[in-house]
Design brief:
The chain has 267 residues and is an alpha/beta fold. Helices cover 36% and strands 18% of the residues.
């Protein structure tokens, strides 16, 4: 191979690397957060009773949530959803949890549904703490279970290091975003461009409450090995991982073993 050919090959590789980094800068946040906005006067057509909450952690920020009350409440499930959709979808999923005699509070992240405000990883965590404090102080809940799903497991994990929690449920959890998208670590030239770390693996050992991880073996979005890694890094013995054979990223609730595990936690 001639020297010219080598330099052409290097130039092509450098161009591809530059294009990747440019793509990352322009589109990374849109790929990570795939929430749909709703008009402020949008009306949900749920068949169940619900209360809409409009919370204001800052003057320019609105957090929209749904409070779903059970007939005989044993406490509150604070639910943090995944990266797609909004409460028009996630409200239906949250409603399934009322069968266990818990109230459920679920919020949309900034930029999702009717929630507004500039988004960053730090303010996602701060918003979660604000909603928790509202539930504890204004709504007087003292038995609070935190349930995170997919991207929401990072928010839930961080919150559980900051506030007292009865139980932490992590459904299809990731260790850190760099492992979900490994090319970020491999090809990103300037690492500070990675504004979102969502690093649960380095903080899960700070959590003192019981933790249950639910993960499917056929999860092609967040591999089962990530749930296993988190489980191994929990320091206290009050932990459990529910391995759901053939379970995928979005269908764990269709398995009997999943329903049994949730029922056992919330009994």
């Amino acid at each position: 191979m001639s020297t010219t050919s080598v330099w052409i090959g290097v130039a092509v590789l450098m161009s591809l690397l530059l294009l990747y980094n440019l793509f990352f800068i322009l589109f990374y946040e849109k790929l990570l957060f795939q929430g749909d906005a709703l008009e402020a006067d949008y009306s949900f057509d749920f068949k169940f009773q619900f209360e809409e909450l409009m919370l204001k952690p800052e003057s320019e920020v609105t957090l929209h949530g749904l409070l779903l009350k059970s007939d005989s409440s044993k406490g509150l499930i604070l639910y943090f959803h995944g990266n797609r959709g909004n409460l028009s979808r996630w409200g239906l999923i949250a409603d399934d949890l009322r069968q266990y005699d818990y109230d459920v509070l679920i919020m949309d992240y900034r930029g999702y549904g009717k929630s507004t405000g500039l988004r960053s990883e730090s303010n996602l965590y701060e918003d979660a703490q604000f909603v928790y404090d509202y539930a504890a102080q204004e709504l007087s809940y003292d038995n609070i279970v935190i349930h995170g799903r997919s991207l929401g497991t990072a928010v839930a994990t961080h919150l559980a290091t900051q506030r007292p929690v009865t139980h932490l449920i992590l459904e299809t959890p990731m260790t850190r975003i760099r492992e979900v998208i490994p090319t970020l670590e491999l090809l990103l030239v300037y690492k500070p461009w990675l504004q979102y770390e969502f690093n649960s693996i380095d903080r899960i050992d700070e959590i003192e409450c019981p933790i249950t991880i639910l993960h499917g073996t056929d999860d092609s979005v967040v591999p089962y090995k990530m749930g296993r890694s988190l489980y191994k890094d929990i320091k206290h013995p009050n932990k459990k991982i529910i391995k759901i054979n053939r379970g995928k990223h979005n269908n764990l609730d269709t398995f009997e073993i999943y329903q049994q595990a949730i029922g056992q936690i919330l009994k």
